[in-house]
Amino acid sequence: MADDLSDITDDELVRRAASGDQSAWAALADRHLASVVSFAWYRLGDRVEAEDIAQETLLRFAKKALTWEPDGAKVRTWLYRVAGNLVIDRQRARKPHSPLEDIEDTSIIDIQPHLDGKLDARRVVHKALIALPARQQVVLILVYYQGYTVKEAAEMLAVSEHAAESLLARARKSMRTALEPNREDLIGAGS
Amino acid sequence: MTMQNHQMNDDQLDAALDALKSPVPSDTLVRRVHVMAPPPQKVFMTPRRSAAAALIMALGAATMLHMANSNSIAPTATPASPAPIAAVADPAGEIPVSDLALGDEATISREPFSMAGMPLE
């Protein structure tokens, strides 16, 4: 059923969902859920927390859908902003030294449990990623990992395209610097 | 020592970034989110409201009809004017007139009220 709705705009799906169309809601959720989980995971490194945030974000959107105005913000922008705020709340609630310690026990080990070298590379990259300033981190995630254009990322961050390009360049530079000590291992692991 | 002089190039950085792949949503999460569909909007016209609306419309129509029919007929009686308060509340005239005052400009509340009678914030 959701396939039939794949060509329908987000706004139209929201309108249908708000009028009680369950399949429209499912299609809308399927369209955005993975992105929200991914976004939260890249920022937190914890699969359970990422899924909690995605669930809370979609729950809030289900309520918002009843008063959604098609001419306002895009659905994905709204979702990313809410998810971003929830991520910040989680980061504030965390203890100072806890974030990366649990990665091995949660998400990364779920993906590649047998590749020890790869596992270390992932931890190193993720550690460098979450050490970036928040806006650089978000632009890098949106553009590199989620495939948005710089212009789309700029819209989501409510900054100019030029500012987003600058943030992305600084993010890549910071990542290069942070990953440099592990360069050989990373290149070997990535090849 | 020469390692520090070699910055990662774009391809190498991309390869390193590629090492990090996010998980896909679990089936449990997908199921949970699917059942979060917005609650159906409340239907304004319940059967009771429909009946009430019909009654109001009927009364309105009857009133309009009555007014239309009575336009050509002169009123036969003037509306009764309310009795003086003093006559009702103080037939013996024992209470000073000032105490019978219901209110004046100084005591009338200036607070705006809503249709429901509650002060507007």
β-strand amount of chain A:
under 5%
Give the overall shape of chain A.
Answer: elongated
Termini separation of chain B:
72 Å
**Overall SS class of chain A:** mainly alpha
Give me the CATH superfamily of the largest domain in chain A: RNA polymerase sigma factor, region 2, helix turn helix motif
Q: Provide the structure class of chain B.
A: mainly alpha
Report the count of strand segments of chain B.
0
User: What is the average of the pLDDT values of chain B?
Assistant: 69
Name the largest protein-protein interface in this structure.
Answer: A-B, 49 and 32 residues
Instruction: Give the % helix of chain B.
Output: 40-55%
The biggest beta sheet of chain A reads: none
Query: What proportion strand of chain B?
Result: under 5%
How many distinct helices of chain A? Answer: 10
| Anisotropy-based shape of chain B | elongated
Put simply, the count of helices of chain B is: 5
| CA-based gyration radius of chain A | 18 Å
* Largest β sheet strand count, sense and barrel closure of chain B: none
Poorly predicted segments of chain A: 99-115
What low-confidence regions of chain B span 5 or more consecutive residues with pLDDT below 50? Answer: none
Oligomer: heterodimer
Secondary structure layout:
The complex is a heterodimer of chains A (about 190) and B (about 120).
Chain A: H1 10-18, H2 22-44, H3 47-64, H4 75-93, H5 108-111, H6 116-130, H7 134-145, H8 150-157, H9 161-179, H10 183-190
Chain B: H1 10-18, H2 27-34, H3 47-70, H4 85-89, H5 97-100
